[in-house]
Amino acid sequence: MAEENEKKEVKKAEEKKPFMAFLDENKLEIVTVILLGITALLTAWASYVGSIHGGNQATNYATSNNLSSDGNAMYNSAVQTLTQDMNVWNTILDYEIEIMYADSINDQNEVEAYVWKLQWFCMDNLSEDMAAIIGYDQEAFNDGVNDTEDIIAWIYDDSGKAITSPFVDEAFTDSYFAETNAKLDEAQAVLEQGQQDNANGDKFSLVTVIYSVALFLLGIVGVFKNQTNKKIVLLVSVVCLIIAVIFMVTIPLPTSGGIFG
């Protein structure tokens, strides 16, 4: 009977075992201080990385604006060049028509006159790219050897390059804007990186808030006199700390700035 009573007492004592009994008052204080230090360091780190993201965001936005301005200037220049080359083509076509007409009525003087005009005009105004696409050979057509015959043969060539506008070729027209598009694509890429930096900076700000909550809870642990209450608050702060750490490690670090180069 005495043994039974003793067992019951032991069972009751175990049932009344304090919450997180492995943490006595001294250990609780030590754990709290250590966690305060760790959380403070993590808060400072999150704040630092977030500020780098913010700096990168501002830099990328400014760079993107500059690249966009350059791209727009290049676009205007490309439009002017395209318009100028279209005018060049129209003039070349006019000369070709005059040559074809003069040739059709056997007016050799007129043929040679317009061939001469075409030669000089092309030497001064025809770009290499346009010459290539319409098949105009600057060297062969200006070497002084059968130039008139060479140009007439070029005009009547079955390929039709000489009398077909080069601007019907979409790839040729797009080539005027190749550098412009590359510059604007670069501006867009930098802008998107800036937006990503902005999003990452906001996430690090949220991490800092969670760390601050953990710091607050750790700071008030000592206010409670009841050990159970202290341990509950400590436990909640640890949960906040773990959540913040897990969230933080999922956020990309800055690609540049500070210790990241």
In short:
The chain has helices spanning 2-15, 25-104, 108-125, 128-134, 147-155, 170-175, 178-220, 227-249.
Describe the overall structure.
- By secondary structure, the protein is mainly alpha-helical.
- The protein has one domain.
- The chain is built from eight helices and no strands.
- The protein is rod-shaped, with a radius of gyration of 40 Å.
Helix-residue proportion: over 70%
Count of helices?
8
The average pLDDT is 88
The coarse silhouette is rod-shaped
Total beta strand runs? 0
Structural class: mainly alpha
Please trace the helix and strand order, writing H or E for each element. Answer: HHHHHHHH
Low-confidence segments, given as residue ranges, are none
Any idea how many domains?
1
Report Rg.
Answer: 40 Å
Largest beta-sheet characterization: none
Termini Cα gap: 77 Å
